[in-house]
Design goal:
By secondary structure, the protein is of the alpha+beta class. The chain is about 45% helix and about 10% strand. A hairpin with a 2-residue loop joins β4 and β5.
Length: about 475
């Protein structure tokens, strides 16, 4: 139904129905809960503590307040939410290493291995249903995206439940410009085809630069862009060894060099804006929202951002390229992890386990309370069932370019790849090096071969030293 749009009035009707007629904003999703107030019951011996970053702390605090309400937590034991500043992984690790009283934290794939081996976070496989804990973990595992199990299982044990699951490195489209170019629904199926289509579009002289690649200056910008293009085309084996510690297999003369040649060709021909190398993420998002590009390489959840009239000039006109011959992108995700808090009693541990399940699975009434709120508010995904929820589909089906884009997103998430090296503690150091080295191949300060050799040598050195 690429040409069929739901009216604004119908969208508002669907939104009102989905949230029980409540105003869109802080209380979206509260219509999901049961109306009764839970009487005080067993209480933890101390307030639980959750540490978070700077993303939507208002939503997190509202979610936590709902947990306290459902479990009847008394006022003097209400759960505390602490916001950390700066690099969240570094700030969290500092607290964990110091033994600070924390119950729940966010953990990313490349941190989970390190933190689990240090004993800072606990495996969750043995969590069982009790009077306080609503669900057996064995019930939950089968409902996760497969990549979540792959990413967050260390030595056979699972270390958390999904905060969000995303595919970073998808191809977002400006359908208005593609129609003007006579290329509606003529989507690339591989990275090579993308660059071929960009060349065709450049010759039409409709815009200055057809492509906005994710080469921006962030740890999750240009380094991830390089890794994902290689593994999408050649599999993990084109970058990393299968066996731990997953050292490099890429080198001069391999697919990695071919990827940088594609980049350099796009750069030299003016198909991409030179300023992308100095952009930060906020600049990168705003740039595509201007409507000046045919394609942007980005996370699929930014479909929500690009189709928001308050933030984007292409609202209602941004779609996404489906996977056909290869995956697009790599895993961008975090989990809620259960921290190994030292002053816990058995009952405290059960409350922390209940909070983990509430955040990463369902509330005590069997509803995806938190996951559905994130899906409605920010288009964040947690589990396939949430994205398939009729209310979520109604709201986003009305806002997106086509309702089938929801199915595309679920398909992308079902096959998204995770770099093997993310399970090794040395990767983040290499990622920092790649962030500074890769731009040099584009600007000509180093040759492509020199950059590939440097990245290979550094990966060898780091993987051998740990």
């Amino acid at each position: 139904m690429s040409g069929e749009k739901i009216s604004r009035r119908r969208y508002l009707e669907l939104t009102a129905a989905a949230i029980g007629g409540l105003a869109v904003g802080g209380i979206v999703g509260y219509s999901l809960r049961k109306p009764e107030v839970m009487p005080p019951g067993p209480a933890p011996t101390h307030s639980m503590v959750m540490i978070i970053g700077g993303y939507r702390p208002d939503v997190v605090r509202e979610n936590i307040a709902e947990f306290d309400r459902e479990w009847g937590i008394p006022m003097d034991k209400r759960t505390e939410v602490q916001s950390l500043s700066g690099d969240l992984t570094v700030a969290t690790e500092t607290k964990l290493a110091a033994g600070a009283p924390v119950d729940i934290c966010y953990s990313y794939p490349y941190a989970t291995t390190t933190w689990s081996k240090a004993g800072w976070i606990l495996p969750i496989d043995d969590i069982k249903k009790t009077d306080i804990v609503p669900y057996d973990i064995s019930e939950i595992k089968g409902k996760l995206y497969p990549v979540v199990l792959e990413a967050y299982t260390v030595e056979g044990k699972l270390y958390g439940l999904p905060y969000f699951v995303s595919d970073y490195g998808c191809i977002l489209t400006n359908e208005e410009l593609l129609a003007k170019a006579g290329m509606s629904d003529d989507y690339p199926t591989t990275w090579k085809e993308l660059y071929e289509k960009v060349e065709v579009l450049a010759k039409k002289h409709i815009v200055d630069h057809p492509l906005l690649p994710s080469w921006y200056n962030e740890p999750f910008g240009i380094p991830w862009a390089f890794v994902l293009e290689v593994i999408n085309q050649g599999g993990n084996e084109a970058m990393w060894a299968k066996e731990y510690p997953h050292g490099p297999t890429f080198d001069v003369g391999t697919l990695a060099e071919e990827v940088l040649k594609d980049w350099k060709n796009a750069w030299d021909n003016g198909w991409v804006p030179k300023g992308v190398l100095t952009m930060k993420q906020t600049d990168f998002l705003g740039e595509f929202a201007t409507g000046k590009y045919f394609y942007q390489v980005n996370a699929e959840y930014y479909l929500g951002y690009m189709n928001d009239p308050a933030r984007s000039k292409i609202a209602g006109k941004c779609s996404i390229v489906p996977p056909k011959k290869q995956p697009w992108g790599l895993l961008d995700s975090a989990i809620y992890s259960l921290v190994n808090r030292k002053d816990r009693k058995d009952k405290d541990l059960e409350f922390a386990q209940a909070l983990l399940e509430f955040l990463g699975y369902k509330n005590r009434y069997g509803q995806y309370y938190v996951g559905k709120r994130w899906a409605i508010l920010e288009f964040l995904k947690t589990m396939p069932e949430v994205l398939e929820d009729p209310e979520v589909k109604a709201i986003w089906g009305a806002k997106l370019y086509r309702v089938e884009d929801l199915d595309t997103v679920n398909k992308l998430l079902s096959i998204v790849q995770i770099p093997l090296s993310w399970k090794a503690p040395w990767y983040t150091k290499w990622n920092t090096i790649a962030q500074s080295e890769l731009p040099l191949a584009l600007t000509g300060q180093k040759s492509i071969k020199e950059v590939i050799k440097t990245l290979r040598d550094k990966a060898e050195e780091l993987s051998k030293s740990g």
